[in-house]
Automatic annotation (TrEMBL), chains A, B:
MF-aspect GO terms: DNA-binding transcription factor activity
Coiled coil: none
Domain HTH marR-type: 10-144
Descriptive protein name: MarR family transcriptional regulator
A GO BP annotation: response to stress
PROSITE patterns with a match to the protein in the record: HTH_MARR_2
Length: 158, 158
DNA sequence: GTAAGATGGTCAACGTGGTTGACGAAATAG
DNA sequence: CTATTTCGTCAACCACGTTGACCATCTTAC
């Protein structure tokens, strides 16, 4: 990739944030594949987490992820196909199809959390724990100052 | 989006990095659209920058971006269609088609740099200049410690 | 000088993660 | 009972990536 021009300091920030994110995600999925979850793709962890322990519907999942209900439905299809989600009829509303995390999905989610914890520990080994915390605090401060939209609408400009 | 579980601290880091990156990119393109560049998509800035002032070929562009030459060629097609890049024959090698940034492309690139500078200044207003610098330094330290792959191979796990 | 190999660009088929529009079935409001 | 809303799905499409195949051209070796 083209390196940032030192005369344009603004370019470095997005590049570094992206590189950090990508590295964490790549490392996560390398490790997940080693632990028996090679089918889990980068976005799937976010989707599993958005489904949550209580289950949800495709429409509501779309709202949580900031994507259309159709896109959410397709993503659920894929995760059902690889065994991480399941669909069950809602006895109280025949239109709805509840989406639930399967035991395999829960295992993937649990392992993701553990791996992220270990990766964060690697950052702490390199930077020192207080600098990692400071980094998170700074980003959280930007989020609180209303600069960030944490609801992740579509990953890129879509 | 699902909020991070406080008992799993590792989840926050990728989420915050992604949110910061996405916010910068979204703000950039909102402002670029206002300044006469609505066609510029999130990845296009990276591509324009990778082409550089001297121009390049689709194959070499693909190597720089870590994608296939076919994918690079398609991206060039789109940027040519909207007037940000142009293709010219290489007189010294009839196989090669040089890709060059047009004046309009250079304008978009220049404005991108200016907007990023302004966005960084907004961060400095919120966090204080030294904390923004510290944040960049920390991320750069992770990159130097060989955790990061700055060459951006494909944006997601692709 | 020509045959053989490496390189640049393109075409085709496909996968994934999105979009919008239309529409049937079921629930709800009046 | 009818009108409206909501849930899910189908179909068509777009952006961005992949592999494999292929032709044209440049380069190397003999």
């Amino acid at each position: 990739m083209a390196t940032a021009d030192p005369a344009r300091p603004g370019f470095a920030l997005p590049l570094l944030l992206l590189a950090g994110f990508r590295t964490l995600i790549d490392d996560l999925h390398t490790e997940l594949a080693r632990e028996g979850h090679p089918e889990l793709r980068p976005l799937h962890g976010f989707v599993l987490q958005a489904v949550g322990a209580d289950g949800t519907t495709a429409t509501e999942l779309g709202q949580r992820l900031g994507i259309s209900k159709q896109a959410a439905g397709k993503t659920v299809d894929r995760l059902v196909a690889v065994g991480y989600l399941e669909r069950v009829d809602d006895p109280s509303d025949a239109r709805r199809r509840l989406v639930r995390v399967t035991p395999r999905g829960a295992d993937g989610l649990r392992r993701s959390a553990e791996i992220f914890d270990r990766l964060r520990a690697q950052w702490a080994d390199t930077l020192g724990p207080q600098r990692v915390t400071a980094l998170e605090d700074d980003l959280r401060a930007m989020a609180s100052a209303n600069w960030f939209r944490l609801d992740v609408p579509g990953w890129f400009g879509g």
